[in-house]
Amino acid sequence: MAVTLLNPAGLPEIDAYRQVSIATGSKLVFIAGQVAWDAGNDLAAQVEQCYLNVGRALAGAGATFADVAKMTVYVVDWTPDKMPLFLEGVARAAAKLGSTPVPPGTLIGVAALDVPEHLVEVEAVAVLD
């Protein structure tokens, strides 16, 4: 593996992701922000589809979520009460992918995305040997 994930001592241990990734590979893979075109106005469904799309993009590059060093998630009108729906979408995607994506990540609340129907967008950076 070109990416090692860890939670250094003294930093919070968060189930949804690890605080640090150490990349030792030589090939970087940048996945453009993925959106859900056919998931309706359901945040959990859109999150699920976005993660599945990232998984497909990674596979196209010969990578998996195990190779992801960093993810960034943009959510329209984010408020903390949306976290259960967000985590539900991630869990549903993880069940279909057969693995739980836990690289370091940043969730950013935004006013809008490319079209009004999109509630979430997910991008990733992976590292391969």
TrEMBL record:
InterPro entries in UniProt: RutC-like_sf, YjgF/YER057c/UK114
Record-linked CDD domains: YjgF_YER057c_UK114_family
Source organism, top-level taxon: Bacteria
UniProt-listed SUPFAM superfamilies: YjgF-like
Family of the protein in this entry: Belongs to the RutC family.
Official protein name in the record: Aminoacrylate peracid reductase RutC
